[in-house]
Design brief:
Blueprint lengths: L1 E9 L2 E9 L3 E5 L6 H8 L7 E8 L10 E4 L21 H10 L16 H12 L6 E5 L7 H18 L2 E6 L2 H7 L2 E6 L2 E7 H6 L4 H8 L10
Parallel strand pairs: 3-7, 3-8, 5-6, 6-7
Antiparallel strand pairs: 1-2, 1-4, 8-9
Helix pairs in contact: 2-3, 3-4
Length: 229
């Protein structure tokens, strides 16, 4: 899947003007305000109405939310109702829910509970299970491990990697956390002020970054703090 050109404007101001390719797993990395979240919203067709978006895509599948693409948000509470049992928030039958829970390592009994009764790690796995409902070809991740402790974060990243290897979907991982990106993605695209400043194989960019902005991101300790403007 190749994004030849993504152009987002607000009035006369260009907010994002980038292109990238998701071959298998791509991390879109940058500071807060760099444009990575706007890029994700554009692909999900969730931009505010006042923003103008031009998008050219080359893909072997259509971007249809809920069918060929799925989304895992940063905060699972934004995807789950606290007043409805977990199982009632899926769009598949009980047998399929049980299969999905097994795939993400959850006890099927948890489907009869409410979101407030589950831990952060359990909730994130529920949302990942929901993302797998329709066997998507692309899963977009919006910093899904930011609010998790290091051990749970490692578990979620390992789960996502194993699921991708098993079900062969592509990943677009939007994050400020290069440590997490290294664990999950083969390729990386560094974005600053709405433009790509460096991209390539994860191992090559981490080892031999060319751009000063990239070097700053790599050298910062993302495991202990967020990199904020």
């Amino acid at each position: 899947m190749k994004i030849d050109n993504l152009h987002i404007k607000l009035k006369d101001k260009t907010l994002v003007d980038i292109g990238f390719e998701i071959k298998n797993s791509l991390a879109l990395v940058g500071q807060s305000g760099s444009g990575k979240s706007l890029t994700l919203k554009a692909l999900l067709k969730m931009l505010p109405q006042e923003m103008v978006c031009e998008l050219k895509i080359k893909s072997d599948f259509s971007l249809i939310a809920g069918d060929t693409i799925s989304f895992v948000p940063q905060n699972p509470f934004t995807a789950l109702s606290p007043l409805t049992k977990i199982k009632k928030q899926f769009f598949v039958d009980d047998k399929r829910i049980d299969e999905l829970f097994h795939q993400v390592g959850l006890d099927v009994k948890l489907k009869d509970r409410f979101a407030l009764e589950l831990s952060g790690g359990q909730l994130q796995r529920v949302v990942i299970a929901m993302a797998l409902e329709n066997s998507p070809k692309l899963i977009m991740l919006d910093e899904p491990t930011t609010a998790l402790d290091p051990q749970t974060k490692e578990m979620i990243l390992k789960l996502l990697k194993n699921l991708q290897q098993k079900y062969n979907f592509k990943i677009l991982f939007v994050t400020h956390d290069i440590d997490s990106a290294k664990s999950l993605c083969e390729d990386i695209c560094i974005i600053k002020d709405g433009k790509v400043v460096e991209s390539g194989k994860m191992s090559e960019v981490i080892k031999d970054a060319k751009d000063d902005y990239t070097k700053t991101l790599i050298e910062s300790n993302f495991a202990n703090r967020e990199f904020r403007q």
